[in-house]
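TL;DR need structure tokens for one chain.
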Amino acid sequence: MMKDFSAWLSDMLVERGMSQKTLAQLTGVTGAAVTGWVNGRSEPRYEKIAAIAAALGVEVEDAVSRRTPVAPSGDVKWIFRVAPEDGGREGGNTATFAFSPSLEVLAREATQNSLDEQLPGSEPVVARHTLHELTGHHLRDFMDALGWESIEEHINAAADVRQKVGRVLRDGLQELERTQRLILLRVDDFNATGLTGPEFDDGRFARVVRRTLDSGKAGAQGGSFGLGKAALWAASRFGLVLVNSTLSEPEGGRTERRMAGRLELPWHTLDGVEYAGPGWFGTAAPGRQNTAQSWWGEKRAAESLYLERNDSAPGTSFLVVGAYDGSGETEDLEDMHDRLVKSLARNFWASMVGGMQEGAKLRASVAAFRNGEPVKTEEVIDPHVHEPARSRAVQAFLDGDTVEELTDRNQVLQTTVPLELRRRKDDMTSEDPGVHEAVLLLTPSGEDEQPDCIAYMRATRMVVKYKRVGDLPLGHRPFQAVLLAGAATRSLAPDAVAAEQFLRTAEPPDHNDWLGTEDLTATYERGARQKIMDFKKTAEQKVREVLRGQQDEASQDEGPEVLRDLLRLDPPKVTRSQGFPIVKAIEGAIDDTGAWDVTVTVKLPKRDEPWVLAAVPRFLTRSAGPLSVGWSKLFPLDGCALTPHGNLAFRDGATQGKFRGITDASSHPVSAAMSQVMVDVRRAKEELS
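>> reply
TL;DR here they are.
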């Protein structure tokens, strides 16, 4: 709704720090006239509105339309939250610790959030992931636009190596100094709602940019913890993310280029001032001390920050500054691109499948650039290439082309799996919610797919979990199964709505299973957890029954050749010899410097060429998956030698080798005493090149 002119003028006077008397002088009217405009007793004519716009330094259209003016780049700055007077300190945003800081997790969580914000209608959400590697003047220009000098000192002050977050920050600063290279990961969505809502009150913008653990989601939407967005900040070496949103509903009279930035730091001191940690990139908020607000940006400013959107469709662009794969699996641009493709394909193939009765929910792509030049052009992910059998199953369901009995290798069998629902504790007077009939699809597996698995999904058809089915009939043909529950069944019946809510509360923060969560126990009557467990067991049992039924029919009557092939009894597979080096033994202890000193024995399979391997040390902790660390020293002991690249070249024909390594204590994400150490061996890039 358009503001009254009086409200717009009052807000602008506060923002500009201008008195009514000064405005009267600049516009050539009396003070009483200005008071009448501000109080809403009168409204100026067009020529006076033009004079008011000139006095305030805004466009005439801003005054006529009562819209918030575009902020000049010079008005945008970093503002940091001052520490509370009670002396409380936070070592970082706890929400970022809920996920492993990996590109796979980022792609999964960010894309799920995009699907949750899909606009009503038939258009799919378009999710684009773009990597930019910057060096030289491209890096300097970006840093200037970002205001790096004003935040670098805060990052340095917060980089306390005694804290986990501090060590990550220190490593990021050292990496930037050493390589003079910065990677940006931009995550765009289109045909989504955008960051709508007011600056400080409840709304999508405030939930994403200002708040933690506040999702505001309900019904069929993916997350209920408000944690998914934290994966973006966790994937930045500096905890730094910028945003540019095109809104589906105007805010302040505008929809394009609502921009902001947030830097997640732990408590720190700088120049004698204590800071709580986080900082925001924006303009000073009128009437709020030491507070930044989002700004409506110029096209040139958005371009300088790699945030200009090339499509007018509503949605949001997130820019992860200093993007990296915290799992340590990959560091170079090409590998990061491939990892994003793999994650999107594995988690969202079903969302990308469309049929005659319902279109695809998602179209995803990944591209990579180095200083503006394409390294890998935009790759649009085709679900039928990455997951052919599973995609065939979902498309057959959407097309209404499933069968009750498999007689051809390309057919898709459809049956049902019951989910017994439970009453909510806040609605115990209602009738028993009854049973929801989930849809189970079964089809023969392709040659290149991991067979005999069920993929669980609901709502947006993001895969919640892959589960391998055991105790299968002897001689069955490999298959793929898909379990569609809740809204994914395309049913609008009350049981489907109830099932969607039921399963949503059964998902942990990373949405990778259906379990007996605290949310489930707190929301539903006793026995809810057991119903979830029974549902998954029943799905597996239904798969076994279908396969046995097909096998029984085939044994009574051989039937068509394609059916005999589907249920053939294969001879036992011959066990293949080891095809890759493995760690046979590892021994070690923590030395006086706090580093792990380990001796590793590697078993090598025979081959014509000598093995050249990279040895990667990792820490195992209770709170996270394997975390990569670095070596300070590496010594070949038996059957190997160091290459100029720091890898291990093993003697031609050797079946075993041994080396010793000492970890770099400065690279430890946690104290060595709080972890176990393991070592991975993999083919070195110098061998592959």
